[in-house]
Amino acid sequence: MSGRLPRSAREAVALLRKRETTALELAEIAIAGASGDRYNAWLRVSADHARAQARAADARIKAGDDSPLLGVPWACKDIIGTKDIETTAGSRILQGYVPPYSATVVERLDAAGAVMIGKTNLDEFAMGSSNENSAFGPVRNPRDPERVPGGSSGGSAVAVATGEVIFSLGTDTGGSIRQPAALCGVVGMKPTYGRVSRYGVVAFASSLDQVGPFAQDVETCATVCEALFGADANDATTMRLPAESLRMGIADGVKGMRLGVPREYFIEGMEPGVERAVRSALKELEREGAELVDVSLPSTDHGLAVYYIIQPAEASANLARYDGVRYGLRVAGPDLGETYRRTRGQGFGPEVKRRLILGTYALSAGYYDAYYSKAQKVRTLIKREFDEAFKRVDALVTPTSPSVAFPIGAKVNDPLTMYLNDAFTLPVNIAGLPGISVPCGTSDGLPVGLQFIAGSYQEATLFRVAAAYERIAGGPMEVAA
Amino acid sequence: MSTLDRSVVEKVAGLARIALSPDEVDRFTAQLSVVLGAVDRLREVDTSAIPPTASVLPVDNVMRDDIVRPSLSLEEVFRNAPSRDGDHFRVQTVLEER
């Protein structure tokens, strides 16, 4: 083994089976890489925990177990609870918090024999599109360290882009997996709402949040989803559906598939280099035998407004629990009310405070109908338009983000401009659909992401078309230096 | 719909139990006014015949049997407590004696 990890779960498992490496050796490579982090992608490297998991995986491999993630090193966004390992959600208010139990997704990966290397940096409480909102400093993009990696799951995207781990987990409320995947040149996937348990994951906006994977390749993402998917008695929003192979169509190609191109996703303000890369990808998909279908989703334009009512409103309810009583930071004041206010005033960063004020305002007496109720109705319209489109097409193809990675600091003082980064990803959360971002060339040397969207529970179709495009593009992007 | 001014931001921050500095009140007032301006465009949409969507899931209530299961130990529950008094979280006086 050289000092680099294999690039996919399939390669890693093949080497492990042939006894050309061990899970412990893979874990040591990952620990060394994460410990030498140059991009502030990691908040914690849990080396002892990783080594113990790797030794257990090696014992299983020796006994003939050939599970598809057994011995594969991964990284966990620090908003996902890990038993006995500090979990901060990127916030001062949770600094030092050590969960007494693990999230269901972590337990499922533990059972699959995957080896967790540590916890990755993120925008505080997953609120952000640039990873500049972390209480523990911004994450840098390994394709250009002066630029942002996207967010909120920036650390998880970077840990995969640098090849420090083979896959990672993120959470996606409005694009927080797909957008950083696009900006870092990796694959990132958000499952259908209801596919993956959120038990043990720090809640942000509960009608929108999903956990999903990053990897360099599509097939690894599908393999991770197979381990994550399925009902959980501890999360009543998980759907009871029969287990299915998400990889079986991965070699089938796009010939005969109908791919919708929604015209509202090709807007003014999109960077010309992004549009060029995406248009050229569309041509290549057509050349491979896909039929491109012109589609209109007229309410797309209202997605941002719907999202910036529903999401902060739900966040304001979810984050009410951080009161300094049972866990987390407590800043004492002269009375209990003042203790709450100081704890939250000092514990939360500016973006979290902005959103909690916005959400509280939207839910307050006299404004509820005008904002929250109105947004829920327009949400219905957006969902209906997607449902109609999927009667005509197998999947939709769009740019993931209107821009490539932008310079650190460029948008921090202008929240609305920052929010526009998610204009193409957040409608997918509003409608609860699965979406994936796949690298699609570069613009000025920086990665561009191509987004595929499928109907609810059609992840197998999503992986099929994404894998087909990945082959057209000549395979995964080079590992970032 | 209302435009946002400092007094509204101060009042809502009070409802959300968040202490803000005067500088934060100024900044958030300006920034959230811009965001609300963008959000206000929803008024253009005719939703008179459209039902709201609270959740995209095609289910209503999810029921389970009420079975006693093991839960976290008290030690685990209190491990992260800022202040503890026996089997209680210690906080300041909520109701004063008269």
Protein architecture, described:
The complex is a heterodimer of chains A (481) and B (98). With 481 residues, chain A is an alpha/beta fold. Chain A is built from 15 helices and eleven strands. An eleven-stranded mixed sheet of chain A has the order 1-3-2-4-6-5-10-11-9-7-8, with helices on both faces. In chain B, strand 1 and strand 2 (88-89) form a beta hairpin. Chain B is mainly alpha-helical and 98 residues long. In chain B, helix 1 (6-15) packs across helix 2.
Short description:
The complex is a heterodimer of chains A (481) and B (98). Chain A is of the alpha/beta class and 481 residues long. Chain A has helices at 9-17, 23-35, 47-62, 104-112, 154-161, 178-184, 218-228, 272-287, 303-318, 336-347, 350-363, 369-389, 415-419, 426-430, 459-472, and strands at residues 42-45, 73-77, 115-120, 167-172, 187-190, 210-215, 258-262, 291-295, 395-399, 435-443, 446-453.
Topology overview:
The complex is a heterodimer of chains A (481) and B (98).
Chain A: H1 9-17, H2 23-35, E1 42-45, H3 47-62, E2 73-77, H4 104-112, E3 115-120, H5 154-161, E4 167-172, H6 178-184, E5 187-190, E6 210-215, H7 218-228, E7 258-262, H8 272-287, E8 291-295, H9 303-318, H10 336-347, H11 350-363, H12 369-389, E9 395-399, H13 415-419, H14 426-430, E10 435-443, E11 446-453, H15 459-472
Chain B: H1 6-15, H2 22-39, H3 74-78, E1 84-85, E2 88-89
Helix pairs in contact in B: 1-2
Features:
heterodimer, A: 481 residues, alpha/beta, 37% helix, 13% strand, globular, B: 98 residues, mainly alpha, 3 helices
- Low-confidence blocks of residues of chain A: none
What fraction, in percent, of the residue positions of chain A are helical? 25-40%
Give the strand tally of chain B.
2
Q: Which strand order does the major sheet of chain A show?
A: 1-3-2-4-6-5-10-11-9-7-8
Number of helices of chain A: 15
How large is the share of residues in beta strands of chain A?
5-15%
Gross geometry of chain A:
globular
User: What does the average pLDDT of chain B come to?
Assistant: 91
- Characterize the biggest β-sheet of chain B: 2 strands, antiparallel
Spatial separation of the terminal alpha carbons of chain A: 19 Å
- The averaged pLDDT of chain A comes out at 97
Order of helices and strands of chain A: HHEHEHEHEHEEHEHEHHHHEHHEEH
The largest inter-chain interface, given as chain pair and residues per side, is: A-B, 71 and 54 residues
Oligomer: heterodimer
Spatial gap, N to C terminus of chain B:
44 Å
What does the main sheet of chain A amount to? 11 strands, mixed
Number of strands of chain A: 11
SSE pattern of chain B, N- to C-terminal: HHHEE
